[in-house]
Amino acid sequence: MIEVAHLTKHYGGRAAVDDISFTVPRGRVTGFLGPNGAGKSTTLRILLGLDRPDAGTALIDGKPYRDLRYPLHTVGALLDGPGSVPERRAVDHLTWIAQSNRIPRRRVHEVLDLVGLGGVAKQQVKKFSLGMGQRLGLAGALLGDPEILVLDEPINGLDPEGIRWVRTFLRGFAARGRTVLLSSHLMTEMADTADEVVVIARGRIAAHGRLDQITAGHPSLEHVFFALTGDQGPEW
Q: What residue stretches are annotated with the ABC transporter domain (predicted)?
């Protein structure tokens, strides 16, 4: 599972996250919600070893990300798109990632087919649409057949068919006893996908629990979200 405990991070004297704690259990899709500036990006960056906390821990199966020898076998992540070289072909982009984590080459073609890019595997990434780029990012996250997925806005740019595919895939992934931490601004889609929800506002946890518990007595998840968060400042 994912365990965040008393996590704190300051930038320029301001707390981006302030003593936050939550867990993301196996067998669940956990939604991570918050306005811009709430601390979502900071939390995810620390979890994936891209930044260091001032205090507290963010662990993946009991270890910091940096201690995972071949991390893609444990956790797959999508932050800020595929991160590929525009002139590189899709298959080559995934191949060098696979080699860095000792993943067999055949897995590259498996994940390209899985996300619907098998037919454009040899096309340069710069020719991809936004939605195709998101699919490539998802393929990269799935390369190591991980037990955990950490995804930030994975359906950005996808058409309705692609959105439905991602929703179905993530629910099936969790149903097999695996773990999903999903950050998104789309409340309706989150309500259709998540089993649990973590809401962060102003660097602190505003709510954490099962989706049905969080939304009890409210017309929708969107109403709960605005009731808990209000207006926020610039994103960290």
A: 2-227
